[in-house]
Design brief:
mainly alpha, transmembrane, 91% helix, membrane, YabQ, Spore cortex biosynthesis protein YabQ
Length: 190
């Protein structure tokens, strides 16, 4: 293996070490912000390290056909150490700012959607309900008025019908009682 490939491999592994440090800090910040059960944290920890090792091995395959030697581990440790020494605190601070910005952006978008979509739809819904309730009360008032007018117009005829019924079938018995009596008396005669 040539010295150029070995140098590229060490440089790539140093970059991988720094990227693993960034990934570790990112994972650690998000794990701290979430309140996951311990068993789920354990599974995510395993997935993180397996994924990191898989990514490192994939890069190693691309750079030097997967040949593993001591300088590779040195490059990874050096890259991670350099990242944690120089950039870890700055990156975590930057990541917290990005998270706060994303939370602010999310709240702003929700407020905009609430103001421009949800509230107008609710207002329209309430206006329609009030309009339907008003129309229903107007319809009830009109129906009640028409019923009173109809009763007033028909009332002389109703009284005339009651008087005629009493004259035809007697004062104390109604039409159905007379029909029943007539039907029973007819049966008895037969």
């Amino acid at each position: 293996m040539s010295i150029t490939i070995q140098l590229q491999t060490v440089l790539a592994m140093s970059t991988c070490g720094a990227l693993m440090g960034i990934g570790f800090d990112t994972y650690h910040v998000f794990k701290g912000k979430s309140r996951l059960p311990l068993w789920l944290v354990f599974i995510f920890d395993i997935l993180f390290w397996v994924g990191s090792m898989g990514a490192v091995f994939y890069i190693l395959l691309k750079v030097n056909d997967g040949v593993i030697r001591f300088p590779i581990f040195f490059g990874m440790i050096f890259g991670a150490w350099l990242y944690f020494l120089i950039g870890s605190k700055k990156y975590i601070h930057f990541l917290h700012r990005v998270i706060k910005f994303c939370q602010w952006l999310y709240r702003t978008i929700i407020q905009i959607i609430d103001t421009l979509v949800v509230r107008p739809v609710l207002f329209l819904y309430r206006v329609i309900l009030m309009l339907l309730a008003f129309l229903y009360s107007v319809l009830l008032a009109i129906t009640g008025f028409l019923w009173k007018v109809t009763r007033f117009v028909i009332s002389p005829f109703a009284k005339w019908g009651q008087v005629l019924g009493k004259k035809m079938f007697g004062k104390t018995t109604g039409i159905w009682t007379n029909w029943k009596n007539w039907f029973h008396s007819k049966r008895k005669r037969e």
